[in-house]
């Protein structure tokens, strides 16, 4: 016996399959100009995605470096304070 969630998953899978088949049919029946336009659009989206990924990667790297520097300073401060207390 299937549950409501399983039925929803099956329906979603069938809709996805139908959408994929429709897209495949549309592409196969498209003119060369339409295919070229679609290819350019996909390439542009890929380039934007790559650029965004690179920006995020750079930002994360910068933030990690900043946090490492702050941690090193805090560790040095803690060591200095421990030395003062021990003296």
Characterize the biggest β-sheet.
Answer: none
Average pLDDT number = 93
Order of helices and strands: HH
Percentage of helical residues?
Answer: over 70%
Find the structural class using helix and strand composition. mainly alpha
Contiguous low-pLDDT stretches (5 residues minimum) are: none
Specify Rg, calculated over alpha carbons. 28 Å
Distance between the termini: 75 Å
How many β-strand runs?
A: 0
The gross shape turns out to be: elongated
Amount of beta strand = under 5%
Structurally, the number of domains stands at: 2
| Secondary structure tally, helices | 2
A few lines on this structure:
With 87 residues, this protein is mainly alpha-helical. It has helices spanning 4-28, 32-86.
What does this structure look like?
With 87 residues, this protein is mainly α. The protein folds into 2 domains: 1-30; 31-87. The protein is built from 2 helices and no strands. It has helices at 4-28, 32-86. The termini are far apart.
Features:
92% helix; elongated
Question: Secondary-structure map with pairings?
Answer:
Elements: H1 4-28, H2 32-86
């Amino acid at each position: 016996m299937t549950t409501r969630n399983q039925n929803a998953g099956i329906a979603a899978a069938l809709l996805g399959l139908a959408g994929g088949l429709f897209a495949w049919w549309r592409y196969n029946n498209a003119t060369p100009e339409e295919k070229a336009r679609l290819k350019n659009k996909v390439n542009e989206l890929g380039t934007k995605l790559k650029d965004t990924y690179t920006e995020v990667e750079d930002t994360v790297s910068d933030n990690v470096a900043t946090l490492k520097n702050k941690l090193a300073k805090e560790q040095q401060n803690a060591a200095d304070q421990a030395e003062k207390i021990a003296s």
